[in-house]
Amino acid sequence: MAPLPAQEAQHTTRRRRSCILSFTAARDRCLRRRFLSAGLRPFSIRLPSAAGPGTTVHVWAPPRPERRAVLLLHGFGASATWQWAPYLRKLIAAGLDPIVPDLLFFGASSSPVPDRSEIFQARTVKAAMDAMGVRRFAVVGVSYGGFVAYRMAALYPEAVERTVLVCAGVCLEQSDLSRGLFPVSDVGEAAELLIPRRPAEVRRLVRLTFVRPPPIMPSCFLKDYINVLGSDHIEEKTDLLHTLINDRKLSDLPKIKQPTLIIWGEKDQVFPMELAHRLERHLGENSRLVVVKNAGHAVNLEKYKEVRKNIIEHLREPVSKDDESSGEKEVELH
């Protein structure tokens, strides 16, 4: 594990070179400073070949995590710093050590391995946690990050103590698209929505994910955002979505046993409330659903104070002996 890795430096240099007078780059630098001021530092973790040869995971973490660790997994969109900055200081004040990775093909994390499943994402994050010496932790996942968090809880029950899933449609089925549950009807259209390449597509995404989107979104700012943060790994991100959705069935989804908090925006249009109730039914008594009023899919940003409060309350609950022994063995998938 090495601070300020070459890959991260190249990633930052490219952003600066492409947009010297960039609002997006300036905002990105501001968010990075917030992570630094909270006591987190950027690290590059090159995983051993057994975990995926050539795979590098970029992580923000305390130099020496010593307290209860909470792993924060971002969704589609910009890198982790854009989604978790408002949470850091309150989590630290609550006695927690936040660990914030970029998932593969976001930020400075990458891999030459062709596997695009959330299972592979889960394995790489777990390998990064092992490299840091963090053996037990809670995990919080937003949207796509919730899919990865869910798989981590299923694969590593001895490591994951508690789970928080924020607007994570893990119970969706591919057939839901054709029957009109979502604003898109197929995987290709979903990729166009979640990986926008033009200002009009960014506007559509923002209006779908926020209950109160900005009234004015100038094209020059949206182009800047796409150029600085939305132009990397487009093919890989598209493959992530195809792998996530194609042939997905609820009957194939394992049930996790960790105490799980489900948080959902009442007006989520990306993953409608039906999926929240479906997940609550799937998990049964181990889960609790919190519905946030007047919030959409971006509830973690729109109502971050309410979401943050619920996360901290859930993570502060004592871990019982039943929780610690809820998983018999780690699941091995071949």
What features would you highlight for this structure?
334 residues; alpha/beta; nine-stranded mixed β-sheet; globular; disordered C terminus
Overall, the morphology is: globular
Number of discrete helical segments? 15
* Distance between the amino and carboxyl termini: 28 Å
Strand content: 15-25%
Structural class of the secondary structure composition?
alpha/beta
Largest sheet: 9 strands, mixed
Radius of gyration: 19 Å
Instruction: Calculate the mean pLDDT score and round it.
Output: 89
Give, in spatial order, the strands making up the sheet with the most strands.
Answer: 1-2-3-5-4-6-7-8-9
The count of DSSP E runs of length 2 or more, i.e. the number of strands, is 9
Provide a descriptive summary of the structure in words:
The protein is α/β, with parallel strands linked by helices. The chain is built from 15 helices and 9 strands. It has helices spanning 6-18, 23-37, 81-84, 88-93, 118-131, 144-155, 175-178, 187-194, 199-209, 219-229, 234-245, 273-283, 299-302, 304-316, 321-324; strands at residues 2-3, 41-46, 56-61, 68-73, 96-101, 137-142, 160-166, 260-265, 287-292. Strands 1-2-3-5-4-6-7-8-9 form a 9-stranded mixed β-sheet, sandwiched between helices. α5 (118-131) crosses α6 (144-155) and α9 (199-209) crosses α10 (219-229). The longest helix has 15 residues, at 23-37. Mean pLDDT is 89; it is low at 3-10, 12-19 and 324-334.
